[in-house]
Amino acid sequence: MAKVRDILTHVSIEVAKHRRICHHNRAEHSITKETACLVIKDPATGGGKNYCPLCASPILERAKMRISQLQNELASTGSAAA
Question: Is residue 20 part of a domain?
């Protein structure tokens, strides 16, 4: 059986080993040492952007909505083709 592809390889949760900048709100938010944060890596450059838990939540909610939309679109298109 073929391995299921992971399309979210560039997104992860990391625990900060030092203070980091929150890329969503640089002026007001920072990520303190030992705080979990969302990291989105750019495959082209290898760099990453960090997001504090407060800013990460709406990013993940939007991703959930987008995945749900894709599933619905696939289901409706698949049933129309059958």
Answer: yes
How far apart, in whole angstroms, are the C-alpha atoms of residue 9 and residue 53? Answer: 19
Of 80, 57, 61, 79, whose CA–CA distance to 69 is shortest? 61
Give the CA distances from residue 39 to residues 19, 31, 69, 71, in Å, rounded to whole numbers and listed in that order.
14, 11, 23, 25
Domain count of the fold of the chain: 1
In the numeric block, the tokens 């504090």 are attached to 52
Residue 23 lies inside a defined structural domain of this protein: yes
For residue 56, is it within any domain? yes
Closest CA to 80 of 68, 72, 66: 72
- Tell me which residue range forms the domain holding 17: 11-81
Which tens digit of pLDDT belongs to each residue from 10-61?
999 999 999 999 999 999 999 999 999 999 999 899 899 999 999 999 999 9
> Is the confidence at residue 81, as pLDDT, over 80?
no
